[in-house]
Amino acid sequence: MDRDQAPAYLANFLECPSHQSALAMVILPLVLLISIVGCGDSASSRNAAQEIIDQATRSETAVTDLPAPERAAVLLEQIIEAEYQKWQRAPGYEERQPTQAPHGTEVDIYVNAELAVAIGSTGRSEWPVGSIVVKDGWDGNTLTLIAAMSKDSDGWFYMETNADLKPVFFGVNAGGCATSACHGKSGSDAILAFDLP
Questions:
Q1: Core vs surface per residue 148-166: b (16+ CB within 10 A) or e
Q2: Residue 135 phi, psi (nearest 5)
């Protein structure tokens, strides 16, 4: 390669997203290692560096490829970081509603932007990939659980927490969620609280 061709080759190399990811995966740990050595060998520096590396690694792994417990933790983290309680409320749930479902005595239901757009459309036979619906289960003024459904190309992933907000049911058919006795009986693509438009 000519010396004059090197800048164009490097520019083309860096335009590719997979090259950018690979380069980031090499440079990030190197920068962290240098910063740890420069700041001393404290446990907190190592823990912070490991967390950053873990986050970078997680972002390179498809969420659907994670084992169900880790996928549930990622979904819970994702909805909490997105401040799901500020999302649009589901139709018919503009305020907390009593329920007979196994999710508390009252519920609040929220939908993410993808699902909100789909709710406003017509003629759907299923909800789009990327849809997330979150249900807060209440007993009086006590939040007893968070239940979430996230749709990807593999279908619906279910996650439900206990009162300590730790995922206890999770998976494609968590605790029987997708069976014909529960979400599987819905004619609205597994969502029981509201219908397809």
A1: bbbbeeeebbbbbbeeeee
A2: -120, 125
Q: Which residues contact 197 (CB under 8 A, 6 or more apart)?
A: 118, 119, 120, 121, 122, 123, 124
Lowest mean pLDDT among 32-36, 57-61, 118-122: 32-36
Alpha-carbon torsion angle 31, 33, 38, 43, nearest 10: 130
What stretches of 110-168 show up as alpha helix (H) in DSSP? 113-119
- pTM for this entry: 0.66
What region does 108 belong to: left with phi over 0, alpha with psi -120 to 50, or beta?
A: beta
Quick one: which of 152, 147, 129, 154 has its CA closest to 183? 147
Most confident of 31-40, 128-137, 167-176, 187-196: 128-137
Cα 139 to Cα 15, 33, 49, 99, 105, distances in angstroms: 53, 48, 41, 11, 5
Q: What are φ and ψ of residue 13, in 5° steps?
A: -60, -45
Find out whether 137 and 104 touch, Cβ atoms under 8 Å.
yes
Q: Which of 62, 85, 61, 54 is nearest to 148 (CA)?
A: 85
Residues 132 and 90: beta-carbon distance below 8 Å: no
